Amino acid sequence: xxxxxxxxxxxxxxxxxxxxxxxxxxxxxxxxxxxxxxxxxxxxxxxxxxxxxxxxxxxxxxxxxxxxxxxxxxxxxxxxxxxxxxxxxxxx
Length: 92
Known about the structure:
The chain has helices at residues 20-26, 52-64; strands spanning 4-9, 14-19, 37-38, 44-48, 69-74. The protein is α+β, with helices and mostly antiparallel strands.
């Protein structure tokens, strides 16, 4: 079974959308930097492309045994830029 993930991108950057529960399941919630973002409720996380996205991909491949399928959603100015920065504990 393969899982499809979404990458949100704009002219300057890209972010992989994953659920916080997936970060916890992979044991990498504490390895994500403050350069990533999270939804207002803290459940969806948007991992920045330079480092955090790779951390997730490696951990996911190691646990699941296969690579991810990714769909790119481009916007001129991604909504992700307006979200709160990622924190390990989430919101609240």
